[in-house]
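During the second year of the project, the team shifted from modelling isolated chains to modelling whole assemblies. The rationale, set out in the original proposal, was that interfaces cannot be judged from single-chain predictions alone. As a representative example for this report, we include one of the complexes processed in the last quarter. Its constituent sequences, exactly as entered into the pipeline, are reproduced here:
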Amino acid sequence: MLEQSIRAETKLVIAVTILFFLLLLASCSSRDRVEGFIHFRLNYNPSTLDPAYIVDVTGGNIAAKLFNGLVRLDEHLAVVSDIAESWEISPDGTIYTFRIKSDVKFTNNRKVIASDFKYSFERILDPRGKSPNTWVFEKVVGAKAYMRGAATEVSGIVVRDPHTLQIILEMPFSPFLNLLSMTAAYVVPKEEVERWGDDFSTHPVGTGPFVLREWRHNNRLLLGKNDHYFAGEARVEGICYRVIPEDLTAVTEFELGNLDVISLPASELRRFKFSNKWKDLIASREGLNSYYLGFNCFRPPFNDPLARKAISQAIDRRKILETYYEKRGGLAHGPVPETLRSWPPPEPPRYDPETANELIRRSGLQGRTIQFYITADQEVADIAEIIQSYLKIAGLSVAIKQLEWSSYKAALNKGEADMFWISWWADYPDPENFLFPLFHSSNHGPSGNRTWYTNKTVDELIEKGQRLTIRSARSSYYGNAEQIIVNDVPSVFFWHKADITLRQPTVRNYEIYPIYSVDKGLEVSF
Amino acid sequence: MIPLLVGITTITFSLTKALPGDPVYSIVGERSSPEIIEKIRKEIGADKGVVRQYAGYVTLLVQGELGRSYFTGRRVIDDIGVKLPNTMRLACASMIIAAPLGILFGFLSAKKRGKFTDRVITLLSISGISVPVFWSGLVLMLFFSLRLRLLPPSGTGGMQYLFLPAITLSLPAIATLVRVTRVMVIDIMDMPFIRTARAKGIPEAGVSMVHILKNALIPVITVIGLEFASYLNGAVLTETIFGWDGIGRYAMEGIIKRDYPVIMGCLLVGTLVFVFINLIVDVIYHYVDPRVRVHGTDR
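Output from the structure prediction step:
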């Protein structure tokens, strides 16, 4: 009797529990949207939204919607006015005078004046601060003294009147206006920075077309429209960034309509490309980047240009790009992306296994084990194995050493690797940004030149280009420098990766821009 | 407790410092001069000797602080205060699913030993232990979110966000509990006191619930405690797949970036959670097993 009653009770409990869960499930929905907002995915939570500290593309992309600088880049990558309504450059190219618009307000309703820019730029260089972006302003007169603590202000940033700002450079530097379009050059209000201190990052106040409405870290970030934006009004109510680390989860969210635009993961490209529903909604554009196989030119075996040339001729880059990489980028002729090159492309050494074998014999590479350093990324590991197999055919032994990012960078900066796989993404759209940091001998190690490449002629050509304001003349210097670099083979330049996105049919006017700071989020709509 | 805390802080600090890599290279980005690198190293105290760094860390702890993240600048204690409750919700939800189901099926499997039901449950439980959560999680997501359109695939929030990660996380726990319960119940079913209980005329339900299950529960409670504590220390894969803002993802990101204050904060809180859960398990033993009360763990 007791047993029967226990059984009956158990059944009842199970039935009620199942019913409860079914009802709960029925009340749920897979729909997860903020009405009127456009929804994007972030792979990871941005570390900071304080322009002084942003070093990543994700942070820069969001900051572009919250802040403005003196100038900005348009969709053709030309420098155009932003908060500065006009500017003049002195004939010797060292004095930049900006006239600041009078109707621009921070979102705390205070008008922007010239001293706000002086404050914002000096904040980057502050000797007590820890901004990693000091290099953006280090060519300004007095910047180095200020950074050392030997001066109370940067003498080269002069407020002439509330609407006139003058920046004086130590020497002419042709990409300077490009630098001013970067995140680090955005204007911030002093009173808000002082009010929030270290937490300004989570309470950013700028002048941009959007304001930060909510930031649930590792979950979502909401930007609401700034109705008083000085350069027009966004066509959407706001932007919702969802932090979704896993690619397949993001694709599922997209298919459910919870995301409007996603960057298409390589593993899903084929499926969407052959789908009648989606194939026309895929867009692609080559980015301002360069993926390359770098050599340590400072020590044996790759201090010998013959050895570097041998490796470059032993690998069929085009085939790797067309097969494994599924043409997700353009074949590189050199370090400078095609979009920025205004001179004939250099001709890198061709794939030629026989010549490669001959060079390997002559350079004494045979019998050595090459230490090949890569990051802990599956795609990179796949590419490394393909390179390893090409070099094995050429009779070389390659030991792949996979390290996570921070250890990898530490090893590269110390020059531990013989050979490594890395990419470089533009800070600003100028060929100089692919030549000076990567190949100038003053930038060995953490400053960008991780191949430790040194060539005095290249140094001189880059420096001459930096000082000229006439674009065509600069091109000839940069073109020559690039050709010498390609001939010296400090790196094998593989490709310039394309950004591939997929959008919902309801999304209009969505554009892929080659650099993050162009997109202010004003055009996109439903 | 004090020696334990000293031990924990020393070990966590030493382990963190033993990690290869340098957080400064992640902070500065791709382009920075050696001077800036040195300046930032000084700013975060990485230029000091290990003993001075440890002293600084302990001073912070005494003040009830865990420091600020090198990257976000946010207080680690505030971040943990947000993420730990999320992980706790996930851990509790998966245990609420796993504990009754694991014990129920384990008991059923033991009672039907050698029969069809036992074989099916054994097969399923072995699958549950063997299948990795990143696979079961994605399958559940594709079915419940994409096909049935019932549940959101990712996010942190209310009940509807909790279902999929909780079920995913509970699957290996159910399987483990089934195995442990089955073995224990089979062991106890053959004991003389069970025969005595039956001989005394106690109904089968009473024998099962009071005599067999209660005695079998002791190792099961240990397993539940350990599983629960390990969930509270972060179910990294589950949290990553479902975009759940928990302590596991937070710690993992800290480890990848070498964000030492975050790593040490998570390790410290995680260890304390482990100690606390073990304490609770010991207290539960006290009530479940009368022998613990009198003779400690002697049998």
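Chain A has a mean pLDDT of 91. The longest helix of chain A spans residues 2-26.
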